[in-house]
Amino acid sequence: MAFTNNRGQTQTSLSEINVTPFVDVVLVLLIIFMITVPALAAGFQAVPPEGVNLKPHPEEDSDQVLGIDSEGRYYLNKQAIRNEDLPAALRRIYDARTVDKILFVKAHRELQYQKVLDAIDIASKNGVRVVGAISDQRAGTESSVAEDRAAAAAQSATP
User: Fold this and answer.
1) What is the DSSP code string of 27-63?
2) Residue 83: exposure state from Cβ atoms within 10 A (0-12, 13-18, ≥19)
3) I need a surface site. Which of 18, 59, 131, 140 has the fewest CB within 10 A?
4) What is the DSSP letter of 8?
């Protein structure tokens, strides 16, 4: 294709594309993605602890235990309680205490973790100072603590 400029000279158009700016932009985008993608994937990843060396926790009369079943329903000290009544019940119990503001949480293993977090959040806003999780010993494992093994051996030896 030819055209004439304002001086009357005939020129041909250049049909080659200048790829240098295109390559520059692509390289900048590549660098940006190389930096941001690992940062996005490196978020906090929690793996729930598994109970191997658990000591049995005998429940005392003064212990407060919040149970959460697989449906997300609450049980305070083995008594069913409506989810909306939990904050008032915890406030009533822990406002009367001056020490030992501990709540033990025992949740069903298939319960969504967010529901456990919601219960802990409710507890912390209503007088609970320490939340402890109750777990069972993982099936097929033994404690690796020497005192626990000795106690288990002594217990199995008694008729």
Assistant:
1) HHHHHHHHHHHHHHHTS--------SSPPP-PPPTT-
2) middle
3) 140
4) S
In 3D space, the residue among 48, 66, 62, 58 whose CA is nearest the CA of residue 126 turns out to be 66
pLDDT at 74: 87
Which pLDDT value is given to residue 18?
84
Q: What is the DSSP letter of 128?
A: -
Whole-prediction pTM value? 0.55
Length of the chain: 159
Give the distance between the most distant pair of CA atoms in the chain.
Answer: 117
| Predicted confidence (pLDDT) per residue in 101-128, tens digit | 888 888 887 788 888 899 999 999 988 8
Kindly list the distances between the CA atom of residue 143 and the CA atoms of 45, 52, 154, in Å, as whole numbers in the listed order.
Answer: 27, 6, 14
Please give the pLDDT value at position 46: 33
